[in-house]
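Write out the 3D structure for:
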Amino acid sequence: MQEDLIGFLEQYEGWIYLVLGLAAVVGLRRLLQGWRELRAAMFGLEKEIAQRKLVVSLTGLILLVLMVVGEFVVASFVAPSRLNTAVLPTATLDVLATPTVTLPAVVRTTPTAIGQGAQGSDPEAEGCTPGVIEWISPQPDESVSGSVMLKATINVPNLGFFKYEYNLAGEETWVTIAAGNEPKVEGEIGIWNTAQLISGDYQLRLVVADNANELFPACIVKVRVANP
């Protein structure tokens, strides 16, 4: 059994490195994402979630490095030394089936959706549920400028915290405006100062979590900043 394992690791050395390399790329991306979330976190609960993601990603990368080192040692030292050992040939060939290499599935936590509200056909608005999590002002595709009063409904059971962010449409990085931990029903949540932003299409995002550290789907609205 041990000889078969060594032979497998030696024969498929290139493919094993490729699989581990792809897994490392995914792990590094998740690590960087967790680091960005930790830097943007404003509340203790939010920081705890980000730190947990960071630790899991870092642990995964360390395990991948150990696997690469183990493969290198076996393929470069253990297998060649095995060939130097004199072995009498046998009359029976042991034909082994080619093993199948399966990439471990990357489990992504799916937030619990609340309600069955009219989410519409816009995938960006999948987390917006009337009366639960929704933007009241500004409305989709509304044109804004200067200091914008933001109004929203955040009315989920066992609210932990919420934060509201913006980004330039098409970009992946979100900028946190502010945060809170009190429920709102069509209430004011803060001011968005757009005076220093270039005119163009932007997105506003509501990120909500309950006190069990579970995130709800983000509610996103598209607006247009039209500064003079």
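Confidence is low (pLDDT under 50) at residues 83-121.
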